[in-house]
Write a structure and sequence with these properties.
Shape: globular
Largest sheet: 6 strands, mixed
Distance between the termini: 27 Å
Mean pLDDT: 91
Structural class: alpha+beta
Low-confidence stretches: none
Order of helices and strands: EEHHEHHEHEEEEEHHEEEEHEEEEEH
């Protein structure tokens, strides 16, 4: 019956299975490997030396309109922790990108999306023209943002380059060079906090959490990095000696992050998308005649993995299939 497998049972009952569905669930050695490959998609690869690091670039139209383009985008983001989507439409694209890709933004106490701009009386260091240290966003949250988007709308006249570093790479180098420091950063935690107060000094937000800088996965490998000196608390759960040792280890880790960091000069229309739990980001100081404008938001790995699996299945049937075709 074509693409249907029909089973007639001894009692006369008839069941029908879609042949493609049945084939994908075959319990052969190759079938199990293929199923596992579809679930894991691709593996994380730590960055090479800065001179050898190539960040994947792909156009906005390819990612949002073709399954092949989305597959390239998703694989690069999982493998390298970073990808640049070029030639985005003018202005804010949060709603358009979310609707076309299914990568719905995730909200926290600051909302769904935001604009990073330099302003006269900034409420956040990011809203100045000063240098930003390498960091991950919001380590004080238990649900730390997964994937971050920074869409350049207007760039600075001079400076403002993004500084990016692979926390997994730096962790592995630290483990090799200074195993005692590595052990400290994987077992002892800093307290991170976000306290926003009214003029009365009553907290509007009081979010706090303790976490090691380097968090290991079930295989004992470095997987999640939590570091943001701007929201590191002045409180510490330990002795002054413990704190001094942990700071020494952190400074060594920070040196390695810069040793293997790369600089990226994004132009208007570039969307730099990266793994906030792995890739630390910073910014060089800048000057500009007009406001430098970046649009930002977060989305989750669950939605990326889901749509990426769909894209791989669709593309396997037709290399040039369009999304929603």
């Amino acid at each position: 019956m074509g693409d249907v497998v029909r089973c007639v049972h001894n009692d006369g009952h008839i069941t029908e299975f879609d042949a493609y569905w049945l084939y994908n669930r075959r319990m052969t050695e190759n079938g199990i490997k293929e199923r596992y490959a579809n679930m894991t998609i691709c593996e994380l690869v730590s960055w090479p030396n800065p001179s050898e690091m190539v960040v994947t670039e792909i156009s906005y139209a390819e990612v949002t309109e073709t399954y092949r383009g989305f597959e390239i985008f998703g694989d690069a983001l999982i493998r390298d922790g970073i990808v640049i989507v070029t030639d985005a439409p003018n202005g804010k694209v949060f709603n358009d990108f979310s609707q076309k890709t299914g990568l719905v933004g995730t909200a926290n106490h600051y909302g769904f999306d935001w604009i990073v701009k330099n302003e006269p009386n900034p409420t956040n260091h990011a809203y100045t023209t000063a240098e930003l240290e390498l960091h991950t966003d919001q380590p004080y949250l238990y649900n730390t943002p997964n994937i971050q988007v920074l869409h350049t709308i207007k760039q600075a006249t001079r400076g403002g380059e993004n500084v990016m570093s692979d926390g997994v790479k730096a962790s592995l180098v630290l483990k090799e060079r200074k195993p005692d420091y590595y052990r400290l950063l994987t077992t002892s935690g800093f307290i991170f906090e976000d306290v926003i107060s009214h003029k009365s000094h009553d907290p509007q937000f009081y979010i706090t959490r303790s976490s090691p800088v380097i968090n290991l996965n079930e295989k004992g490998e470095p997987a999640v990095i939590q570091w943001n000196n701007a929201c590191r608390s002045s409180f510490f759960n330990g002795s002054p000696e413990d704190y001094e040792n942990l700071m020494e280890a952190s400074l060594e880790f920070y040196k390695i992050l810069h040793e293997f960091a790369i600089e990226i000069s994004n132009k208007p229309g570039d969307m730099m998308i990266f793994d906030n739990k792995r890739i630390l980001h910073g910014r060089k100081a800048f000057q500009c005649e007009e406001q430098r404008l970046l649009e930002g938001w977060y989305f989750d790995w669950d939605m990326l993995y889901s749509f990426l699996r769909v894209a791989k299945i669709k593309k396997s049937k037709d290399e040039n299939m369009l999304i929603d075709a």
